[in-house]
Amino acid sequence: MSVPVIAVFGSSRTRPGSAAWEQAFSWGEAIARGGFAVASGGYGGSMEALSKGAEAAGGLVIGVTAPDLFKSRSGANAHVDVEFPAPTLTGRIERMLEMSRAALALPGGLGTLAEILVAWNVAYIQRLQNLPVLPLAVDYRWLGMFRPHLEVSQREIDLLRAISSLDDLRDFLESLT
Fold first, then answer.
1. Which one has a higher pLDDT value, 75 or 145?
2. Among 51, 53, 73, 123, which is most buried by a count of CB atoms within 10 Å?
3. Where are the extended beta strands (E) located within 110-168?
4. Which domains does the chain have, with CATH numbers?
């Protein structure tokens, strides 16, 4: 892709008019205005709000869908410019990460958590192998789930950057250029 892409993970259950919808919409706008395309799961909820926000700001919207996994969904949301079907959930996440310069996570549920964990593990392995590390930022509320315990250290948690405002998001995006 000629335009750099940001993978964004979020909930399919987010409803229009909710604070989470507004957050996803504003993140989509900010990402597009920052000169990036957005890649999401491409369906409804916060993925649709993100797509709509990016579209409103003139950005490219990519949907990485999983039609074999989500048979009840009728396809990508109306704001997606390019759809890439993936065969599995992990294949979908991998595809999003492979095309992206960085990853972001909005509030969400178990699916969003799975996406964060895969992206986080990719960044961890990259650091172990002395490769460039995939920048990963998450809505600040996710950090309450991640504390040093078992064999997760503060060094691993520090791979996650907290986003608590649009200014934080803009700073994160600027750090990528």
1. 145
2. 51
3. 136-139, 160-163
4. 5-175 (3.40.50.450)
